[in-house]
Amino acid sequence: MLTIGMLTSGGDCQALNAAMRGVAKSLFEAGETVVYGFEDGYKGLIYGRYRKMTERDFSGILTRGGTILGSSRQPFKQMRIPDENGLDKVEAMKGTYRQLGLDCLVILGGNGTHKTANLLREEGLNVVTLPKTIDNDIWGTDMTFGFQSAVNIATDAIDCIHTTAASHGRVFIVEVMGHKVGWLTLHAGLAGGADIILLPEIPYDVDRVAAAIEKRDRAGKRFTILAVAEGAISREDAALSKNERKAEQRRYPSVSYKLADQILEKTGKEVRITVPGHTQRGGSPCPYDRVLASRLGAAAAGLILERKFGFMVGIVNGEIVPVPLGEVAGRLKTVPPGQLHHPGGQADRHQLWRLRNPHHMGGCRKRQPPAFCVCRGTNRGRIDETTPE
Ligand code: F6P
């Protein structure tokens, strides 16, 4: 008999339920299995809040958004800090695991979640994880589930803005989720035909943004749409100290409002702002995410049945692969400036990226090899200790 625990942690996203269903159905199919579902992420594991789940719990949830287990943010940084009653959270999690006689913990989450999962692995627990997030920023996998569904929603938002922007001849900002990475903004921006795309990875030059808007004006284009990541930052703000930057950011509800002020000042044009916000994480998963989550779920079950623990299941070049947790934790998959450069071709895409990217307007100087979707060896990550979640 196999006894597993399951939890979903961090910000929710589409296809969490599909992924859990993939794991559970595969395990139930393989033999006698007991599944404990922990409520609200690591909180349930810490405070022993769980329920025994049956096969029926995993039926009819393939298309359902959110998570049937609930989720919460339990920052990795605070895991080693006792709670308000002096409880040692890590020891408490280990205690729950042992008390239930778990053979493995299945953890679905993003970057912060993976750091804690790796900590539990280092503490001797058997852990298998699945990569969820609309940000697609988990190292070691080309794609996370949730991402494509969110791209659809953010693209729809840009599409809707297109018609009204064109009618009124206005400048619009669509603010897309993503504090640290711009995959979602990049993909929705390209898919939605945004005229300017600003990502957290490349601090923007407001003079170039203004010049691009004015150039469109001169060319007789009546409107401009900017797809702006919520973590986009101006060059000036990027040069500030952390505290100065925080103080500056507090002056505006979000970066879009600051940018709108800057554009008004430089061009005299009023800017309208649309923030789809958490709608990007909501609703049912798109077919791609349902399939990806189901495949990853089944692969996670396969690892458990083979008693292979300490891995995240990812997708690399279309193949579902186990990636050692120690390699994943603490790394962030950011958009490299040369993401759309493909040696030996795709000049049109390169041009598109250059046109869309104020940083590169007037000539792209940074030629970097493609660092994404090529193979794991070149799927670059960088250590980032401040990842939220
Ligand atoms: O990590 C997913 C994400 O939706 C990010 O894109 C966004 O910056 C953040 O979560 C929002 O977090 P919260 O739901 O806690 O406001």
What does this structure look like?
The protein has 389 residues and is of the alpha/beta class. Helices cover 38% and strands 16% of the residues. It has helices spanning 16-30, 42-46, 89-99, 111-122, 147-168, 183-191, 206-218, 235-238, 242-250, 255-267, 287-305, 325-328, 347-356; strands spanning 2-8, 33-38, 50-53, 104-109, 127-131, 171-176, 196-198, 224-229, 271-274, 311-316, 319-324, 331-332, 382-383. It has a 7-stranded mixed beta sheet with strand order 3-2-1-4-5-10-11, sandwiched between helices. The longest helix has 22 residues, at 147-168. The chain is elongated, with a radius of gyration of 22 Å. The model is unreliable at 341-389 (pLDDT under 50). Residues 11, 73, 110, 133-135, 177-179, 230, 281 line the site of 6-O-phosphono-beta-D-fructofuranose. 6-O-phosphono-beta-D-fructofuranose binds at residues 11, 73, 110, 133-135, 177-179, 230, 281.
Brief overview:
The chain has 13 helices and 13 strands.
How would you describe this structure in keywords?
389 residues, seven-stranded mixed sheet, 13 strands, elongated, disordered C terminus, binds 6-O-phosphono-beta-D-fructofuranose
SSE layout and pairing:
Blueprint: E1 2-8, H1 16-30, E2 33-38, H2 42-46, E3 50-53, H3 89-99, E4 104-109, H4 111-122, E5 127-131, H5 147-168, E6 171-176, H6 183-191, E7 196-198, H7 206-218, E8 224-229, H8 235-238, H9 242-250, H10 255-267, E9 271-274, H11 287-305, E10 311-316, E11 319-324, H12 325-328, E12 331-332, H13 347-356, E13 382-383
Parallel strand pairs: 1-2, 1-4, 4-5, 5-10, 6-8, 6-9, 7-8
Antiparallel strand pairs: 2-3, 10-11, 12-13
Bound molecules: 6-O-phosphono-beta-D-fructofuranose (F6P).
